[in-house]
Amino acid sequence: MRVVNRKEHIDTPALLLDLDKLEFNLTKAADYFKTVDADLRPHIKTHKCPRLARMQIQAGAIGITCAKLGEAETMAAGGISNILIANQVVGVEKMRRLMDLLAIADVTVAVESESNIIELNEAARYRNKVVHVLIEIDVGMHRCGVSSAKEAIILARKIEALKNVSLSGIMGYEGHVIFTFEKEERARLATACMDELISAKHELEKAGFPIKIVSGGGTGTYDISSKVKGVTEIQAGSYLTMDRTYTYLNLGFQEALTLYTTIIAVKDGHLILDAGMKAVSSEFGMPVPLGIEGASISSLSEEHGHLTLAGTGGLKVGQKIELVPTHGCTTINLHDRFYAVRNDIVEGVWDISARGRFT
Fold first, then answer.
1. Would 146 disulfide with which of 80, 151, 231, 258, CB 3.0-4.6 Å?
2. Long-range contacts of 243-246 (CB under 8 A, 24+ apart)
3. How many domains does the chain have?
4. Which structural domain, as residue segments, surrounds residue 52?
5. pLDDT in tens, the chain (359 residues)
6. Does 68 lie in the same domain as 145?
């Protein structure tokens, strides 16, 4: 890869990180969590970059959250030691990998079934280890998790009977309300979800199970769920890089992430870009041209983007522009690296090491 030192020399399509905006977001989150009782445990499924994870921890995060074992392995190799896998780790091959990971990092995993905790216990017993777990409680996503406090207590009793699995707490994710755009309604719905989680905590404690960790939240509810008494940590991730969909929530974070792309053809009424759906995701809507009045992306094919505006707006073949993704997580996962830029100077090229680590 050719060394570049200015933004205009970056080959496209490429992911840019505006360092001033990134650092603003990092500081804003860190300052906020100094004012509440909950800690920040950022979810790295957004940026998938060990360097960014280390920056978050240096800014005060207590550790990180991963979606998958593969992400956790990459982060541990990058020097991160306090990791929550907010997902179920299931299967013989993943048991071996998890036990290997426990040799180099402090890892907690989510559980929701008796079969899974037995599998974890057997793997840990064979390797003379103890696996710390959080019981996941379904607070409305209808994905994984036990459906009630009663089921959580039954599972906690089964965990208590095992020697190599230890209950550390509970978790629940109110992701189904994250993009409720009206703030008061989002606050009402998210608080109700966290109240359900805290109610389960109280029921577990009355049944004799001390609950140290209550984990939940996301970027869209970080300043709501963190204020619910008893919630101990928030798993927000997208706040660091942001995307246009989260910007619509008016959270106060800045769009640090853009896709750099080149105009390769000028046609009547539209221009053709060298970035298509293999460079930027569109499940939340088309990416948004940055700083070009009246411009929009009308469609994406595999390797081409169609930019529409009145006339050509003075844009020409060879010119490079930036697009703001509508979904950062799935866009970042398409790329190998970030170009970290400040005032058009490339200060670093950072590997997105955990991209594609979905096993």
1. 151
2. 243/284, 243/324, 243/325, 243/326, 243/327, 243/328, 243/329, 243/331, 244/284, 244/285, 244/287, 244/288, 244/324, 244/325, 244/326, 245/179, 245/284, 245/285, 245/326, 245/327, 246/219, 246/220, 246/328
3. 2
4. 43-238
5. 556 799 999 999 999 999 999 999 999 999 999 999 999 999 999 999 999 999 999 999 999 999 999 999 999 999 999 999 999 999 999 999 999 999 999 999 999 999 999 999 999 999 999 999 999 999 999 999 999 999 999 999 999 999 999 999 999 999 999 999 999 999 999 999 999 999 999 999 999 999 999 999 999 999 999 999 999 999 999 999 999 999 999 999 999 999 999 999 998 778 999 999 999 999 999 999 999 988 999 999 999 999 998 766 789 999 999 999 999 999 999 999 999 999 999 999 999 999 999 99
6. yes
